[in-house]
């Protein structure tokens, strides 16, 4: 994608802290891209005010709530329409909770990426999937490591968007250690700056058209540890009902 500036559309469902970091990297000149559209999945999220303060025009901050559409295709058609109006080149899912409709993914094939706060191994058991977001991911990772007595680390991940939650190939991952004193909140706080770096690197590569997929050399979860994974994820969903 050789342009003076790539036009970025952002999908967000929360405070948009990561988008703020990505946007700052763009404004600094590190990345030749600019945010031209901010889509919120519901009204009132903190990211909307961040987008306003960052200087986005009110018309370029749009609420598209999936619950207001009768089917995923119509939800997707609205996203595609808003992106088309602004000539969006790349879409970033940064803290986006809804399932992205197939028609959007097909329209922006290889031009969409997703942020995830834990280790992924697409196509195999991992710390993604339906319901795995926010502190649930951190709780699940902590509980799993303690159950198996090893693998005391976690990762921030950037991946291509897939029609299934967290099944797209990984583009970037970066690891930090898990400390004995960590809980889901402290782990989330320590990983967040790394998440920002990973998403900035992912956008930089996509802008330069060099995004490469990074499959794992070995499986993230061994067969004998799959029950521990399911137990940890189930516990995380119960402990953090709102993520």
Describe the structure.
The structure is a single chain. With 243 residues, this protein is an alpha/beta fold. It has one domain (6-239): Formyl transferase, N-terminal domain (Rossmann fold, 3-Layer(aba) Sandwich). The chain has helices at residues 17-27, 46-53, 72-85, 102-107, 135-148, 184-207, 226-239; strands at 6-12, 33-40, 61-63, 90-93, 112-116, 153-160, 170-177.
CATH class equals Alpha Beta
Number of domains: 1
Using the coordinates shown, work out and report the CATH topology. Rossmann fold
Strands of the biggest beta sheet: in what spatial order? Answer: 3-2-1-4-5-6-7
- Shape label: globular
Q: How many distinct beta strands?
A: 7
Helix and strand string, N-terminal first? EHEHEHEHEHEEHH
| Tally of helical runs | 7
Strand content: 15-25%
Task: Give the full name of the CATH homologous superfamily.
Answer: Formyl transferase, N-terminal domain
Mean pLDDT: 96
* Helix-strand category: alpha/beta
The largest pleated sheet is described as: 7 strands, mixed
What would CATH call the architecture? 3-Layer(aba) Sandwich
Rg, rounded, reads 18 Å
What secondary-structure arrangement, pairings included, does this model have?
Blueprint lengths: L5 E7 L4 H11 L5 E8 L5 H8 L7 E3 L8 H14 L4 E4 L8 H6 L4 E5 L18 H14 L4 E8 L9 E8 L6 H24 L18 H14 L4
Parallel strand pairs: 1-2, 1-4, 2-3, 4-5
Antiparallel strand pairs: 5-6, 6-7
């Amino acid at each position: 994608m050789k342009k003076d500036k790539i036009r970025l559309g952002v999908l967000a469902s929360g405070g948009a802290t990561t988008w703020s970091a990505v946007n700052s990297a763009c404004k600094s000149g590190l990345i030749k891209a600019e945010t031209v559209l901010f889509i919120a999945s519901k009204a009132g999220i903190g990211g909307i005010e961040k987008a306003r303060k960052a200087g986005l025009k009110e018309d370029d901050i749009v609420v598209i709530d999936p619950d207001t559409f009768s089917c995923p295709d119509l939800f997707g058609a609205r996203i595609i329409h808003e992106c088309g109006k602004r000539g969006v080149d790349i879409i970033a899912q940064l803290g986006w909770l809804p399932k992205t409709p197939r028609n959007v993914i097909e329209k922006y094939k290889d031009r969409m990426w997703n942020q995830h706060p834990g280790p992924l191994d697409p196509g195999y058991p991992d710390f993604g999937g339906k319901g795995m977001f926010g502190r649930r991911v951190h709780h699940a990772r902590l509980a799993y490591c303690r159950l198996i007595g090893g693998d005391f680390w976690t990762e921030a991940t950037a991946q291509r968007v897939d029609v299934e939650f967290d099944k797209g190939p990984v583009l970037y991952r970066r690891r930090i250690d898990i400390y004995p004193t960590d809980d889901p909140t402290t782990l989330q706080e320590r990983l967040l700056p790394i998440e920002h770096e990973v998403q900035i690197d992912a956008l930089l590569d996509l802008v330069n058209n060099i995004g490469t997929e990074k499959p794992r050399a070995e499986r993230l979860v061994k067969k004998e540890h799959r029950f521990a994974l399911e137990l940890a994820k189930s516990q995380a969903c119960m402990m953090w009902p709102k993520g």
